[in-house]
Design a protein that fits this description.
Blueprint (H helix, E strand, L loop, with lengths): L1 H12 L1 H17 L1 E2 L2 E2 L2 H14 L6 H19 L3 H88 L1
Antiparallel strand pairs: 1-2
Helix pairs in contact: 2-3, 3-5
Length: 171
């Protein structure tokens, strides 16, 4: 667990290294084949970058520009001079990839918002409980004063009863 924390701290402090980790891991993810489908290195890098971004890893504006330029270069290199042919033959794949990326990103944002909302509700409940403590203390103090008055009154009446009984027994 500590090694994961050390790696996380290292990646947070070195955004350019994080960019190249995203590219490398994306390349590896792109090579994974499930049945006859694979993402490819460009889409793999995009998915890994989105996931890293969701976990709070940020890179500088310059590194973002380099990463975007590399992404555009890779897409252009794949399509290249056969752009229209690629769009005709693989356009559905690119459309499905875009829909996958958008829906994954939106799902992650939705989950993050739900978690933030849940934490906010916990904060509200804790604040409400904290605000109720003075009321509870005042109620207990009031009841303690009332109880003290009752016991004093009982002691007084008992004293009167004992003294009345003692006087009645002397006759």
């Amino acid at each position: 667990m500590q090694s994961a924390s050390v790696l996380s701290d290292f990646l947070l402090k070195n955004p350019v290294f994080t960019l190249f980790i995203a590219i490398g891991c994306g390349y590896l993810l792109g090579r994974v084949r499930i049945a006859s489908i694979s993402l490819g290195p460009v889409a793999g890098a995009l998915v890994v970058s989105l996931l890293l971004g969701q976990f709070g890893f940020k890179i500088s504006e310059g590194a973002q520009s380099v990463g975007f330029a590399l992404f555009i270069f890779a897409v252009g290199y794949q399509a290249g001079p056969r752009f229209f042919e690629v769009i005709r033959t693989q356009g559905v794949q690119y459309l499905l990839l875009a829909l996958f990326v958008v829906s994954t990103y939106n799902g992650l944002v939705k989950l993050r918002t739900a978690v933030d909302g849940a934490w906010a509700q916990i904060d509200v409940q804790l604040k409400r409980r904290y605000d109720l403590i003075p009321n509870l203390v005042n109620t207990v103090k009031g009841y303690a004063a009332h109880e003290r008055e009752i016991f004093e009154r009982i002691a007084e009446l008992r004293s009167q009863a004992v003294s009345t009984t003692a006087r009645g027994g002397e006759k």
